[in-house]
Description:
This protein is mainly α and 199 residues long. It is 71% helix and 0% strand. It has nine helices and no strands. The chain has helices at residues 6-23, 30-37, 41-48, 51-75, 80-91, 105-112, 118-144, 154-173, 178-193. Helix 1 packs across helix 2, helix 4 (51-75) runs parallel beside helix 7 and helix 5 (80-91) runs antiparallel to helix 9. The longest helix has 27 residues, at 118-144.
Amino acid sequence: MARATNHTRQVSLERALQLFWKKGFHNTSLKDLEKALDMRPGSIYATFGSKGALFEEALEYYGHLGLVALEQTLHAHASPLAGLAAYMRRLGSISDQDLPSRACMLVKSVLELSEREQSGWRKAEELLAGMEEYFIARFIAAQEAGEIESGRDPIRLGRRLQAEIMGLRAFAQRDVSSAAVHDLAEDMALSLEALRITH
């Protein structure tokens, strides 16, 4: 059986991402994938190799989409700190979006996967570590631009920001109002802006 074209493969990957993000790895059956991707088992294995390999590729794609969205926001602002604050405000609208889950797929995967799925767990952890490094780099850039004090620890700031984002998205997954999520995101954005040195 011929492998899927690049376009068809991309569509299948996007559908798999939506399914895994909503249901998780364990709760997504091969039957679920067959239906969502409109593919027979043989075609799924020929295209992606295995359910685990498809899941890891979906994680990679999810991480890519998240990084693209982050970079678009950061590049639209003149300074690293302003860009990070704007990103937090943007996350405040997560409850207003039609998503499979408001919680981060990477965090959900780290919490779900056990020793039996070490490869998937490592992939999710690797992508989370990459995001942490990205945030740290933004705080280093903010220091170099003279926005925040040189004595502040950019590693600690980057990790705190990632933890706050994880918490905000988990909070948004609850039965809470959109306004409550917006308010929390605004508070987090203001705390970032408060790091700026005033002259």
